[in-house]
Amino acid sequence: MDGVGTVAEVILDQTPFYAESGGQVGDTGSLTSPSAVAQVQDTYSPLPAVVVHKVRIEFGKLAVGDEVLAQVDEERRRRIAANHTGTHILHAVLRETLGTHVKQAGSLVEPDRLRFDYTHFAPLTDREIEEIEQKINQIVFKNLPVQTQQMEVSQAIAAGALAFFGEKYQQQVRVVSIPDISKELCGGTHTRMTGDVGLFKIVSESSVASGIRRIEALTGFGTYLRLEEDENLHQELSQALRAQRAEIPRAITRLMDQQRQLENELETLRRKIANSQVGNLVETPKNVKGIAVVSRKIEGIDPSMLRELAENAGSKMGSGVVVLGLASNGKASLVAVVSEDLQKRLHAGKIIKKVAELVGGSGGGRPEFGQAGGKDSEKLEHALQAVYNIVAEFVG
User: Fold this and answer.
1) Which of 189, 200, 223, 299 would be a feasible disulfide site paired with 218, CB 3.0-4.6 Å?
2) H, E, C per residue of the chain
3) Which of 162-166, 304-308, 380-384 bottoms out in mean pLDDT, i.e. has the lowest?
4) Where are the domains of the chain?
5) Domain at 277-395, CATH class
6) What is the pLDDT of residues 276-302, one digit of tens each?
7) pLDDT tens, 189-241?
């Protein structure tokens, strides 16, 4: 294989690269020979004892039989190991805190984060998350040894090693243990000491299926980057709110109170504007077979006020039919009100349903009140003009 940029798969007689398995991503790095350099972009194992390196040629060419120097990206491997050991500690602490019914239901171990799925019947409370974080970091800061040992699978299970979610194990297995904390069957990469995990931080807890919860977390340098991000956010908020760090929550509360007050004032103003239109609405109703009918397009109010305005107009008119329409965000909102004395002859829900059809929508309601919506606000004026004919058809 030759040519810069060529993508290929390479199998070596022996390799230091870890192949993707058990939720841990494969290693990356490089393969170097006297005549070529290839970047290893991923590593996987399609068959037992077969490791495939996905490579991209950076220089020269590789041929069958070439001897290469295989170098793993050590910094990436170290971060993956920190997250994998962190996953084992998380598992142990979840079982201690929530109960031994907790079992691993899946995991993902990457250089920048870890994800752990587990069996549990309820969301974690904020207090539980805080307690779990504290317990994990106490174990991390004790800097306990992380030990690995090869043994018979039956011997490992008898010794208390955890083996979950349908994994098929060879006769000889690898046991990763932290004294008095955790013991699991695992072939992945791990730190030498728990202190190498660095600060552990849970960033989310959610549901992925019935009875299955998911925790996403950071360790070491990932946690540092998150703290740096949070610090920058605090500084931006402090500058925007003109408040010291400790005063940010109070400043936000004040802003929210001010916003609610302004929204209430705006609501009151809109209602006054809406009610001021009632007189104009009922001044010149159209007579349709002896029934007073008002059908108008309204401007400058919130859709939620449309019903109130129509009912007020109906009350002021005494006897008749009121249909009001409003165009908002490209959509049409419609309401209809029929006075009590006319409800044996006219049905507000049926009237508004026919009007809604003219704006590409639907609606309905009761004899006294109906409402509808439509997607074609450009036809609202036409629909409102059609109300008079619709009422005449219902009267007969």
Assistant:
1) 223
2) CECCCCEEEEECCCCCCCCEECCECCCCEEEEECCEEEEEEEEEEEECCEEEEEEEEEEEECCCCCCCEEEECHHHHHHHHHHHHHHHHHHHHHHHHHCCCCCEEEEEECCCCEEEEEECCCCCCHHHHHHHHHHHHHHHHHCCECEEEEEEHHHHHHCCCECCCCCCCCCEEEEEEECCCEEEECCCCCCCEHHHHCCCEEEEEEEEECCEEEEEEECHHHHHHHHHHHHHHHHHHHHHHCCCHHHHHHHHHHHHHHHHHHHHHHHHHHHHHHHHCHHHHHHCCEEECCEEEEEEECCCCCHHHHHHHHHHHHHHHCCCEEEEEEEECCEEEEEEEECHHHCCCCCHHHHHHHHHHCCCEEEEECCCEEEEEECCHHHHHHHHHCHHHHHHHHHC
3) 162-166
4) 7-72, 77-228, 277-395
5) alpha beta
6) 777 777 788 999 999 999 999 988 777
7) 999 999 999 999 999 999 999 999 999 999 999 999 999 999 999 999 999 99
For domain 77-228, give the CATH number: 3.30.980.10
